[in-house]
């Protein structure tokens, strides 16, 4: 079994190296046979790496401990779902999943564009083939997932108890899908640079991939936050851990890219900026993969010390140098088709939005890397923990939220003063009254009041956009505005899907402001029968129970919870002791409502059953997850094929393409 | 906009405003409550980092011998009336700056705090300057075009262009 996997990877490595070279030479020398052969190489590579991945999954499913990697991340008492997730729990398996993802994306891009974009596709194939070759070279030469066990154990070590959570089934695959999907727009960007086809065609072709990558990164980040909240037992959901940061940064630059390409498609501007953005986004996905494998930063997510960090550095440097050289060489072709008409315009506000998004990504990068920089420059280790990011990145994200409300209110090209006053009136009033309401209800932290006012402002903007659209649509269709809502959204999915995404972000922001700014915590030690209170809750500690269950033994604290005089039920925070693992796992108990979460952690106990408990009230946490669902729904709506958009695009291209061709012929 | 439509727009806008304010008001209602008072010792234990963990870990959650010693030290010194900063300074002298949750805002560490904002404001300055410059150039270009057009209003040139136009239109009509 291991031999099949190993041989598949070696042959796949040779095939991807071949198709990279064949594709590049085929288009350079105009050899149709070479190009056809490279295409067949894509199919072969996808089949071979899929075979290797399938072998790995099968080995985990049947507990094949003749493979060393399987014995490290699986044992016989692990159920099938967690067994399969063990395949990507370690470095080798996760690299194999990355490689598999790249060849699958390459296959899908090849099939999607069969017979089309004949000058771009060979270079797209070459670039993605190169990325696949890189990951396969790591697997073949440095990090073989199919190494044989010297002595085959009767049982494996098993998956880390922290990873035995439903989040493990979805969080890593979602994140990796996001990372891998960004390879497609990156490859098309490089292909556009190489071929000189620097209109917005490459953006149009890859819009779906960009949206998909962005959405999966968002889902992956949110699932990770939710998993940390229910599993790690510290009452929080985002610790600004280096690996968390490394998946947040490409999402930020990807968001900037999604917005600034609208300007290129509409006005033919910001061509260099858009190219740079997608290149940076791709580099950040590689950087994220590097962080977990390089040991330069300590994180709960890292795979430990490995020898492949320098390979990632080389890959990132090579990508950066080649991309920069290509942009420099093509600068004369990258002039905008139009110029800015006014500083007060949607184009300018999008530029500012981009600046803040990229600035936020830089702030996160800077904070993440500062411990390394400090040690390199001064030889002094420092820690850069959550308070730094809250103080530095928080205000930048607040600025982005405010811009989310401003941008839709400003027209393209030029906004008049009358126009601005008319459009800003109601959202500004909503913001002011929101601030007054927050203050009147007792919020005193200026930052929280400002953040809530910004959320009110954006809500007002989005609601106004929907109202105006509903009125106009209702007039056209002869229906009441409310009945026209469905037709409104369906008739312009990218736009209204985008507004739904904005509302998702606002709900998320409200949840973050509530849970970060107004958390209440209390540490208590209770003997059986004693009670404690926090907020409107009264908690009566009943005692401890020992609960053995298969491979683990739990110590649970039984706590009866009242809110006022109403009995809410019994909550059981616990510690779980897994066979073969020294540290216990903390299982928190959570009582969730839309307004707040009551969060209980069992910290310690003694022989007399006196329990040390942490009681936490987290206001509005539920809205973080709800905001996430709304964000994903908005992304799906925006992503859904839009017939009207396709017709508009076709009409635009039917004019632009002949003109571009005529200009190219004239230049020649 | 017709009057009935204006009224509908006004009512719906009021709904939008109420929605936004209600969202914020509800959110604030959930949030407000005075946090439990914490002692200096609890404060410090919750803030500082464990000096011996291989991954960044809060002092409050670490079970390493150094973490246990630090917690006991903090409680003892807080009970003796030591101010917070003195306790922190003593521990930093012993374990280094890594026990602080963030780099102190002084010396080289100031770069951690300032650089992101410098990049953003610097970037905004450069972009703003370039955009103003381009707009100014464009205004000058447009102005010179206008001047050029005004010059062409010289009669002879006007007659020449009128004749050219007539010839071009005749050519066009033929096709």
Features:
heterodimer, A: 668 residues, alpha+beta, Four Helix Bundle (Hemerythrin (Met), subunit A), six-stranded antiparallel β-sheet, four-stranded antiparallel β-sheet, globular, B: 175 residues, mainly alpha, Helicase, Ruva Protein, domain 3, 2 domains, 0% strand
Structural write-up:
The complex is a heterodimer of chains A (668) and B (175). By secondary structure, chain A is of the alpha+beta class. Among the domains of chain A are: 1-159, Up-down Bundle (Four Helix Bundle (Hemerythrin (Met), subunit A)); 163-334 and 348-361; 520-622. Helices cover 64% and strands 11% of the residues of chain A. Chain A has 20 helices and ten strands. Chain A has helices at 2-28, 32-61, 68-73, 80-85, 91-112, 120-141, 167-181, 183-195, 201-231, 242-267, 271-294, 309-330, 346-378, 386-406, 417-440, 446-477, 485-491, 493-517, 622-639, 643-667, and strands at 520-526, 531-534, 537-549, 552-563, 566-571, 574-578, 585-587, 589-592, 596-605, 611-619. In chain A, the strands form two sheets. In chain A, strands 2, 3, 4, 5, 6 and 7 form a six-stranded antiparallel sheet that branches. Chain A has a four-stranded antiparallel sheet with strand order 1-10-9-8, covered by helices on one side. In chain A, a hairpin with a 3-residue loop joins strand 8 and strand 9 (596-605). In chain A, helix 8 runs antiparallel to helix 9 and helix 14 (386-406) runs parallel beside helix 16. The longest helix of chain A has 33 residues, at 346-378. The relative contact order of chain A is 0.07. Chain B is mainly α. Chain B has two domains: 40-101, Helicase, Ruva Protein, domain 3 (Orthogonal Bundle), CATH 1.10.8; 110-174. Helix content of chain B is 73%, strand content 0%. Chain B is built from six helices and no strands. In chain B, helix 2 packs antiparallel against helix 3. The longest helix of chain B is centred in the last third of the chain and has 43 residues, at 110-152. Chain B is elongated, with a radius of gyration of 36 Å. Residues 33-38 of chain B have low confidence and may be disordered. Classes of the chains: A alpha+beta (668), B mainly alpha (175). Chains A and B meet through helix 13, helix 14, helix 15, helix 16 and helix 18 of A and helix 1 and helix 5 of B.
């Amino acid at each position: 079994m291991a031999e099949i996997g190993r041989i598949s990877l070696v042959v796949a490595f040779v095939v991807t190296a071949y198709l990279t070279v064949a594709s590049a030479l085929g288009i350079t020398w105009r050899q149709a046979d070479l190009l056809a052969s490279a295409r067949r190489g894509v199919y072969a590579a996808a089949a071979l790496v899929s075979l290797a991945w399938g072998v790995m999954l099968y080995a985990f499913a049947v507990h094949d401990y003749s493979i060393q990697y399987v014995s490290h991340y699986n044992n016989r008492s692990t159920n099938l779902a967690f067994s399969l997730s063990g395949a990507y729990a370690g470095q080798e398996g996760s690299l194999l999943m990355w490689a598999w993802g790249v060849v699958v994306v390459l296959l899908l891009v090849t099939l999607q564009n069969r017979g089309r974009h004949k000058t771009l596709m060979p270079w797209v194939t070459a670039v993605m083939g190169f990325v696949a070759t890189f990951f396969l070279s790591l697997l073949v030469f440095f990090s073989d997932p199919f190494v044989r066990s010297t002595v085959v154990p009767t049982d494996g070590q098993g998956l880390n108890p922290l990873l035995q959570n439903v989040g493990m089934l979805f969080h890593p695959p979602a994140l990796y899908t996001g990372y891998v999907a960004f390879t497609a727009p990156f490859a098309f960007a490089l292909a556009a640079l190489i071929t000189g086809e620097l209109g917005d065609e490459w953006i149009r072709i890859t819009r779906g991939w960009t949206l998909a990558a962005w959405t999966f990164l968002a889902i992956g980040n949110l699932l990770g936050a939710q998993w940390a909240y229910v599993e790690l037992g510290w009452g929080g959901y985002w610790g600004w851990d280096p690996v968390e940061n490394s998946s947040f940064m490409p999402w930020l630059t990807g968001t900037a890219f999604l917005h600034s390409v609208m300007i290129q498609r509409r006005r033919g501007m910001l061509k260099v900026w858009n190219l740079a953005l997608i290149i940076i986004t791709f580099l950040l996905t590689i950087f994220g993969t590097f962080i977990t494998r390089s040991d330069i930063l300590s994180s709960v997510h890292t795979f430990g010390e490995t020898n492949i960090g320098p390979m990632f550095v080389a890959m990132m440097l090579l990508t950066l140098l080649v991309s920069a050289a290509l942009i420099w060489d093509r600068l004369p072709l990258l002039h905008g088709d139009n110029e800015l008409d006014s500083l007060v315009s949607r184009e300018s506000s999008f530029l500012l939005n981009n600046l803040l998004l990229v600035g936020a990504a830089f702030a996160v990068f800077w904070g993440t890397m500062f411990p390394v920089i400090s040690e390199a420059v001064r030889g002094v280790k420092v820690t850069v923990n959550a308070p730094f990011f809250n103080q530095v990145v928080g205000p930048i994200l607040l600025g982005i939220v405010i811009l989310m409300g401003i941008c839709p209110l400003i027209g393209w090209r030029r906004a008049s003063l009358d126009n601005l006053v008319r459009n800003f009136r109601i959202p500004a009033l909503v913001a002011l009254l929101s601030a007054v309401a927050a203050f009147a209800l007792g919020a005193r932290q200026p930052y929280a009041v400002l953040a809530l006012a910004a959320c009110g402002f954006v809500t007002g903007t989005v609601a106004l956009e929907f109202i105006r659209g509903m009125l106009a649509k209702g007039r056209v269709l002869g229906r009441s505005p409310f009945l026209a809502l469905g037709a409104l959204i369906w008739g312009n999915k990218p736009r209204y899907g985008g507004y739904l995404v904005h509302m998702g972000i606002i709900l998320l922001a409200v949840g973050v402001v509530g849970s970060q700014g107004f958390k209440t915590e209390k540490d208590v030690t209770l003997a059986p029968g004693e009670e404690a209170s926090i907020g409107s809750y009264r908690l009566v500690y009943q005692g401890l129970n020992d609960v053995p269950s298969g491979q683990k033994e739990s110590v649970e604290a039984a706590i009866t919870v009242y809110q006022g005089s109403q009995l809410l039920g019994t909550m059981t925070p616990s510690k779980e002791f897994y066979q073969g693992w020294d540290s216990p796992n903390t299982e928190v108990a959570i009582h969730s409502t839309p307004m707040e979460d009551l969060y209980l952690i069992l910290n310690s106990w003694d022989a007399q059953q006196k329990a040390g408990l942490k009681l936490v009230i987290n206001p509005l946490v539920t809205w973080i997850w709800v905001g996430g669902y709304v964000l994903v729904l908005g992304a799906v709506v925006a992503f859904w094929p839009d017939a009207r958009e396709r017709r508009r695009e076709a009409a635009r291209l039917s004019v632009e393409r002949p003109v571009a061709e005529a200009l190219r012929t004239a230049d020649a | 906009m017709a009057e009935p439509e204006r009224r509908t727009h006004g009512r719906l806008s009021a709904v939008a405003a109420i929605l936004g304010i209600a969202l914020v008001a509800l959110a604030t209602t959930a949030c407000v409550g005075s946090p439990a008072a914490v002692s200096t010792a609890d404060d410090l234990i919750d803030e500082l980092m464990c000096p011996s963990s291989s991954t960044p870990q809060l002092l409050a959650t670490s079970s390493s011998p150094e973490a246990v010693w630090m917690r006991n030290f903090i409680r003892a010194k807080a009970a003796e009336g030591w101010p917070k900063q003195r306790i922190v300074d003593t521990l930093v002298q012993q374990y280094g700056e890594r026990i602080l949750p963030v780099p102190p805002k002084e010396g080289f560490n100031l770069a951690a705090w300032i650089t992101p904002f410098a990049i953003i404001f610097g970037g905004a300055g450069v972009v703003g300057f370039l955009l103003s410059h381009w707009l100014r150039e464009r205004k000058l270009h447009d102005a010179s075009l206008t001047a050029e057009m005004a010059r062409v209003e010289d009669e002879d040139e006007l007659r020449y262009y009128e004749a050219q136009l007539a010839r071009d239109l005749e050519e066009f009509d033929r096709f």
